[in-house]
Amino acid sequence: MYKPLQPVALMKKIMDANFKPFFSASLLLTIALATHSQDNAKPKPIKLPETQVESMRAPDNIKIDGKTTEWDDKFQAKNPIDRINYTISNDDKNLYLTVRAQGAYPGAKIVAGGITFTISHSVEKKKREKEPGNVSVTFPLTNSIKAASINAKHYHYWNDLAGNVVKHKGAIDSLHEAIDAQIGEACKEIVVTGIKDMDTLSVYNAEGIKAVIRFSDTFICVFEMAIPLKYLGLSTDNPEKFSYNIKISAIRQPQSTRTGARVVDIRQSSFGSGNMDAPMMPMMMGPPDRDMVYLHDDTDFWAEYTLAKK
User: Fold this and answer.
1) Closest Cα to residue 246, out of 308, 304, 188?
2) Sign of the C-alpha dihedral computed for residues 144, 119, 130 and 248 taken in this order
3) Distance (Å, whole) CA 4 – CA 67
4) Integer distance in angstroms from the first to the last C-alpha of the chain?
5) DSSP codes of every residue in the chain
6) Which of 203, 140, 149 is nearest to 175 (CA)?
7) How are strands ordered across the β-sheet holding 242-248?
8) Nearest to 210 by CA among 221, 222, 224, 198
9) Which fold does the domain 69-254+292-305 belong to in CATH?
10) Ramachandran region of residue 162, left (φ > 0), alpha (ψ -120 to 50) or beta?
11) Per-residue DSSP letters for 88-132?
């Protein structure tokens, strides 16, 4: 004979019948939430500002050698106009600019056009560019033919060797050695404007203005510069905000050479030309190519900085 379940027993049966799917759904939800929590716990890449926002004391072991090991290869800003990562820093004697190119094109542009670092005591946007007391230092001042030869080797790495660095280690080491030698031979002059009795200086000058470029093991261009504060009218005893400009001048195309060297479009040999010294392919009709415009136009930006006290 059928006996209806008592209310308590009926409720228990209903709960038992629904518990398993409820438990499974709850378990899946718990796992999903835990995974999401773990994903959120993973350190996210730090997004750098386009211009440096903080004052920075230079490391005690800073060297103007084209290496960024004293910075642990970290930078204070990532600028999309010049396509560089950079840090401005100071100690009690010098103002430093450390730059790393964001890939092959800005590296080529730095070699061929040079970086001009300008300091202005004016922080007014309409006045700082033409302030009479501005000081500018440019490096390197590279002959266009020599720059083209350096960049041909630079592009050779990116086009033909970077895809398999293990297989091409010997060739890469030889290429790096050749580029270092060429840079040492070609990049010997620093141009100064706005400092009395200074114009074009040797990189071995006695005035204390230092500058260097070199390519890292992965052929990323690194630029470093040091300018004594005394030439800039700045002091950590009384730090005041000033403006600075970082300009990369347009690449200059050699008109004619006996060696046939040209500035090469990095994408050209990816189609199999294999000729490092081939002339640049003409631009096609249509929208302007962003990379070519970048290479052949001056790029620069202004920002502000205040010397960091010890």
Assistant:
1) 304
2) positive
3) 85
4) 94
5) ---PPPHHHHHHHHHHHHHHHHHHHHHHHHHHHHHHHHHHHSPPPP---SS--S--BPPTT---SS--GGGTT--SEEETTTTEEEEEEE-SSEEEEEEEESSHHHHHHHHHH-EEEEEES---TTTGGG-TT-EEEEE----HHHHHHHHHHHHHIIIIIGGGTTTTHHHHHHHHHHHHHHHHHH--EEEEESSTT-SEEETT-SS--EEEEEE-TT--EEEEEEEEHHHHT--TTS---EEEEEEEPPP---S--SS---PPPTTTGGGT---TTPPPPPPPSSSPPHHHHHHHS-EEEEEEE-PPP-
6) 149
7) 200-202, 189-193, 135-139, 115-120, 242-248, 299-305
8) 224
9) Immunoglobulin-like (2.60.40)
10) alpha
11) EEE-SSEEEEEEEESSHHHHHHHHHH-EEEEEES---TTTGGG-T
The pLDDT value recorded for residue 263 is: 43
pTM: 0.79
Round to whole Å and give the CA distance between 93 and 229: 6
Is the pLDDT confidence value at 40 over 80?
no
Other Cβ atoms less than 10 A from the Cβ of 57: the count is 15
Query: What are 211-223's pLDDT values in tens digits?
Result: 999 999 999 999 9
**Mean pLDDT within 127-153:** 94
Rounded Cα distance between 157 and 155, Å, is 5
Is the Cβ–Cβ distance between 76 and 303 less than 8 Å?
Answer: no
Quote the pLDDT of residue 285: 57
**Calpha distance 149→104 (Å, rounded):** 15
pLDDT digits (tens, 9 = 90+) for 91-127: 999 999 999 999 999 999 999 999 999 999 999 999 9
The strand pairing partners of 201, in sequence order, are 190
Q: What are the structural domain ranges in the chain?
A: 69-254+292-305
Residue 10 carries which side chain, given as an amino acid letter?
L
Give the integer Cα–Cα distance in Å for 250 and 243: 23
